[in-house]
Specification:
With 263 residues, this protein is an all-alpha fold. It has one domain (8-247). The chain is built from seven helices and two strands, in the order αβααβαααα. A two-stranded antiparallel ribbon has the order 1-2. The radius of gyration is 19 Å and the shape is globular. It starts with 7 loop residues before the first helix and ends in a 16-residue tail after the last helix.
Length: 263
């Protein structure tokens, strides 16, 4: 993997992203990001649908802007396949997932404005770096890359992670009806698919997916988003697991927080 490309903008944005991963880890260890079950009542908050959509949408918009600004000669079969994987991921993450959220009673304004702003920052630089990596600086991303073992293995890992994400989101989404009554329980114990083994299979899926993405793109932008994701989600998974055990006396004792049979 190449660190220095010679483009001061690209290299600086990448360095800022890697530094942000460290800041994210330090912050997440002490205070889980204030959204969902860890939302705070004070400060400016948004509806979860709007907050999630605004946070994730720069990944699509910024990526497409820089990708389409590149020379058509850069649009090889490989770069188009990679762009397709990107748009598939963020078609779910930035469009379907926010629109399909079924907010819990009392959670109509539970998405922190601060979380949204930081998320927009991350998804914007994420979109920029990968658009440029695919079209300008990933010199190894030739048509032959699609048969390279790193791409094949990385794609398999990514597909496993995406499967975990989609199935876990489906389970969580169907825990409550589309328009729950005001007296409905805000949280329930999820069951099925990855929830058989861990409390946070959706977080595990994100970490696995971005691990695969870093391998199949073989670049530091992929490593950057993997580090930011893990720095946020590993501490959050541990906190969520503790929260479930405190809230539900009948919570399945065999479940781990993030990795089956380990943690």
């Amino acid at each position: 993997m190449t660190w220095y490309t010679g483009d001061p903008v690209f290299d600086t944005v990448l360095a800022v992203g890697l530094a942000f991963a460290v800041v994210t880890l330090l912050g997440s260890i002490f205070v889980p990001a204030p959204y969902g079950r860890f939302a705070q009542g004070s400060g400016v908050n948004l509806h979860p649908k709007l907050g999630w959509w605004l946070m994730e949408i720069p990944a699509t918009v910024v990526f497409l802007f820089f990708f389409l600004q590149s020379s058509p000669e850069a649009w090889t079969t490989t770069t188009l396949v990679l762009a397709g994987i990107w748009l598939l991921h963020y078609g779910n993450r930035g469009w379907f997932f926010p629109l399909a959220i079924r907010a819990a009673p009392g959670a109509r304004s539970s998405f922190s404005l601060m979380v949204m702003a930081m998320g927009m920052f991350v998804t914007a630089i994420h979109g920029y770096l990968h658009a440029m990596w695919f079209t300008e600086y990933g010199n190894h991303l030739t048509p032959e890359w699609l048969t390279d073992p790193r791409f094949v293995i990385g794609l398999a890992i990514y597909a496993l992670g995406l499967f975990l994400i989609l199935t876990s989101e489906s389970v969580m989404r169907h825990l409550r009806p589309p328009n729950p009554p005001a007296d409905a329980p805000r949280y329930r114990i999820p069951y099925g698919f990855g929830f058989r083994w861990v409390s946070n299979p959706q977080y595990l899926g994100e970490i696995i997916a971005w691990t695969g993405f870093a391998v199949l793109t073989w670049g530091l932008p992929g490593v950057m988003i993997l580090l930011i994701t893990a720095s946020n989600l590993v501490p959050r998974a541990l906190a969520t697991h503790r929260w479930y055990r405190e809230q539900f006396p009948d919570y399945p004792p065999e479940r781990r927080a993030l990795i089956p049979y380990v943690i």
